[in-house]
Please model this.
Amino acid sequence: MRVSVTKRALIPLAAAAMATALAGCGSQISDPASANSTASSGSSCVDTSGSSVKVGFINSLSGTMAISENTVFDSLSLAAEEINAAGGVMGKQLQVISEDGASEPTKFAERAGKLIQQDCTAAVFGGWTSSSRKAMLPVFEANDALLFYPVQYEGLEASKNIFYTGATTNQQIIPALDYLAEQGTKSIFLVGSDYVFPRTANKIIQAYAKAHGMEVLGEEYAPLGSTEFSTIVNKVRDSKADAVFNTLNGDSNVAFFRQYKSVGLTAASMPVVSVSIAEEEVPGVGLENVEGQLTAWDYYQTLDTPANKKFVAAFKAKFGADRVTSDPMEAAYTSLFLWKAMVEKAGSFEVDKVQAAAGGVTFEAPEGTVTVDGENNHITKTPRIGKINSEGLIETVWSSPKAVEPDPFLASYDWAKDLAK
Amino acid sequence: MELLIGQMFAGLSLGSVLLLAALGLSLTFGQMGVINMAHGEFMMAGAYTAFVVQRSISDAGISLLVSIPVGFLVGGLLGLALEAVLLRRMYHRPLDTLLVTFGVALILQQAARDIFGAPSVDVRAPAWLQGNVELLGAPIPLTRLFILLLSLVCLAGLVAVLKGTPLGRRIRAVVLNRDLAETSGISTRRTDQLTFFIGSGLAGVAGVAVTLIGSTGPYLGTNYIVDAFLVVVAGGVGQIKGAVIAAFALGVLQSVFEFSTTASIGKVLILVLIVVFLQLRPQGIFSLKTRSLA
Model:
């Protein structure tokens, strides 16, 4: 009797166990809106009377995003160190206050509020996931403070309180499609993780394909963190598409590329263009699985510019010769120098003066000269298609002839008219 | 046709991964009634074992073959430690084992992050497992074939131990009636330890196997734990043959659903199917019939 009772009782328990595990997965994607700051948007408390000025860094130093965001924190630290060594901003040394966003949007909102109200920082740098940015946006708007966000994202946003130094869609995804079209790609297959960025990106790709006579042979999403790609890979192989556009996130890339290769698909037979694999991710995915595949970014460690050589050398000197530099790291490094240039042009640390001075500010970044667009607070960037080489670094195989103006709402593209609505 | 064969194999292959992940669990959960949420982390330990072994034996082929028994040992010893330190104090409190082992799972994840770093590590597949063989035009990945064979070998080994050895007889006796087994001179303590060792060891082997298809990181186990429980519950708690049928049925059905819809919808359909199935047959495919009166 006891045995059967125990066994029967175990079934709902197992269900509870699963619910616990599932709830654990879901907690990353919580609703950020509730974190809106209620503080009055009165005058700022930034203290510029002394010989130093405070700036805030907000990155996930723990949790699932720590792997990526730690690298951004490192390059921000390098930029602050270089600025201080060269005399600071308007003669004032930067005093960095770092907060851990802990991979949770609500935490980002709360810590951003602290950096603005309690620490009285002149500007805040960081954030990675779109959900963390969306959670912080109302906080920065309510307090009329500044956030510099360094990661490529899905576009369709512009706040006067956020400067976006990563690529928007017309500086990464659309150029990648232009490249594929130029190479004679007639049909593509879309593979992505099932969340906001891939779905938005694929909507844009569908619209682009329709307008440019490219055929989309399939659009498949894997649950975040999924490692089972047999069926998706079979569908991709069966479609006989000319190329695959990959918006998978994180570790799913490992499983996807391994299984892709194991059914005999290669970079030569069906190239994959990825938008979230940078130098940092290649070792984890396994070089032998991605060698020869394509990536779309605006910066690679191998870029041959004087500013990049200096950046890479300084980074390796500070953090170790085995470290690599990637697009979001470069965008973060650049963001601190852009803020410095804005402050010096404005002659003031005050937010409204910095905002007014921002348009047209330029910086010789490792990726090339970047210019701030005063209208939408994004920056000009040069899209580049790269190929992963045998050392795990990425070589530029195609580069946009000139820097591309940011167009987060794709207003200048006829075929994208219905997307922004 | 080519696609059909490819998909059939994808289903079998997914089934074999599920079976590997669930085989150990059907011993510890099924036979002993312990809800071990750390089972996935024992798999993760097995996967990192493959990584560590590969660092010292650079030949990927040899290191894979060495990793399998070493992974079994690592998983088994972790299980033994968990059993000796915590679980033996709570055999009659299954809800407590759920919470405690969930805590242990979190500790093991953090330990992996501290030792190996947060980014995933790369475990190379041996050259003789790269590529595929053609079956009527459909490419059958060699890594998948290897995992299918490995799961069948593990299954055969487990069945042989349970049916053919004195240890197996003791395990079955304890499952059927713990008190009667104790009365007839079987040390249930030792039997529990060995059962847990074998069950956890199988998780270690599963961990070594999945390094061939996915990434090796601190969260590896969380990808498999829910599916493993599903297999064990749907198969009928305590029934190895139920777990085998459930694993392959779920694998094939998931491939079919995923192929005709999308990956996310396929997953939803599978869960709905299992819920409906358990409503009709709460005891799973097979149920344990005992004459126990206690």
